[in-house]
Design goal:
By secondary structure, the protein is α/β, with parallel strands linked by helices. The chain has 13 helices and ten strands. It folds into two domains: 171 residues, 2-Layer Sandwich (Nucleotidyltransferase, domain 5), CATH 3.30.420; 168 residues, ATPase, nucleotide binding domain (Nucleotidyltransferase, domain 5, 2-Layer Sandwich), CATH 3.30.420. The structure holds 5'-O-[(R)-(carboxyoxy)(hydroxy)phosphoryl]adenosine and zinc ion.
Length: 357
């Protein structure tokens, strides 16, 4: 019964081409809720971070993340509605991150969203987290439309996607081992910089020499769009342990700068190659690592040379937030994809498969 009503309402929204979505994100260590109109206009975007809770463990503790989401969800949603100056009566549909991410964390918002959608008899939209990251650019740049190449780099993903339309994704390349953000976080940990590591490496690198160390990257010269970061990470770990054993000082800034420059070179070269090979003239950056200052500088330089337009979101929209889920949810809804009340979360899975299901 619920699904029939929701389908009918979704049909009306698609005909109208307009909808106000309440979006909820809980895939990792931020609880976030947002109200987004027509996929581009953010009426509110409330983010409650758990970083202080996980800091003392040196990384996200999944069980603690789930419990923290449970306590944060209702106040965060209430604040998002209040800031958007609206009530649930003004909400046309609920968007929620279905995956990928920490399964327990995801399930908190998925269940909450199901309850809300059911109680209000409004459509429920399941969103792929990476599509959300890509859509941050649609919020930031109202004139931006597909087709484009997306370089989606976060703590869990490093993907190059051909984005032919709002809900049409082809995976061109991905990491064969660690995600770029994961490598940043692990290197930060071995250098004793703390969590979350990416931003710390970014800052420290500014005082370091990028040519101090050479780290090999075996996929770099291969004719594909894949990445590998675990070799570089291991090289850094070995280097630090060697220096420690010899009681030598660890040149943290030089190591950070050399590591970061290697990772960035790999990301930039492959993204530019993808755009050239496909013949697209636009690249968008997405995900937490898109906040990296060297990545932004280098890809800006390379895109200018190759006459490719470049888009990247402001730092607050690079890391996890619900506004991006509201944007992706709108396009998913307009594509006719709505979820039933038996919706489950998923921990892994690519964006291309998401739309092939
Ligand atoms: O997208 P995100 O918030 O969460 C995931 O979906 O994973 O990305 C978090 C990742 C972390 O690995 C973090 O260290 C990295 O993004 N990150 C950065 C920077 N800011 C965040 N990595 C490099 N440089 C940064 N400035
Ligand atoms: Zn993310």
């Amino acid at each position: 019964m619920y699904y029939e009503i929701a389908k009918e309402k979704a049909k009306n929204l698609i005909e109208k081409g307009s909808a106000v979505l309440l979006a909820i994100e809980s895939s990792c260590d931020e609880t976030s809720a947002a109200v987004v109109k027509d996929g581009r206009i953010v009426l509110s975007n409330v983010i409650s971070t758990q970083i202080p809770v996980h800091k003392k463990y040196g990384g996200v503790v999944p069980e603690i993340a789930s419990r923290s989401h449970v306590t944060a969800l209702v106040p965060v949603v209430e604040e998002a509605l209040e800031k958007a100056n609206c009530t649930l009566d003004d909400i046309d549909a609920i968007a929620v991150t279905q995956g990928p991410g920490l399964i327990g964390a995801l399930l908190t918002a998925v269940n909450y969203a199901k309850g809300l959608a059911f109680a209000r008899s409004i459509p429920l939209v399941a969103v792929h987290h990476i599509q959300g990251h890509i859509c941050s650019n649609l919020i930031e740049f109202p004139q931006l439309t597909p087709p484009f190449i997306a370089l989606a780099v976060s703590g869990g993903h490093s993907h190059i996607l051909k984005v032919s339309d709002y809900c049409d994704f082809t995976l061109m390349g991905a990491t064969r081992d660690d995600a770029a953000g994961e490598a940043f976080d692990k290197v930060a940990r071995v250098l004793g910089l703390g969590y979350p590591g990416g931003v710390k490496i970014d800052e420290l690198s500014k005082q370091g020499n990028i040519d101090a160390y050479r780290f090999s990257t075996h996929l770099e010269k291969e004719d594909n769009y894949d990445f590998s970061f675990s070799g570089i990470k291991t090289a850094v770990v070995n280097l630090v342990h060697n220096l420690e054993q010899k009681n030598q000082e660890i040149p943290k800034a030089d190591i950070a700068a050399s590591f970061q420059a290697t990772v960035v070179r790999m990301l930039v070269d492959k993204a530019i190659k993808a755009a050239k090979d496909v013949g697209y003239k636009k690249i968008v950056l997405a995900g937490g690592v898109a906040a990296n200052s060297r990545l932004r500088e280098e890809i800006t330089r390379m895109c200018r040379q190759a006459q490719i337009e470049l888009y990247y979101p402001s730092p607050v929209l690079c890391t996890d937030n619900a506004a991006m889920i509201g944007s992706a949810g709108f396009y998913t809804l307009m594509n006719g994809n709505i979820a039933d009340i038996n919706l489950n979360a998923f921990a892994t899975g690519g964006l291309d498969e998401f739309y092939r299901k």
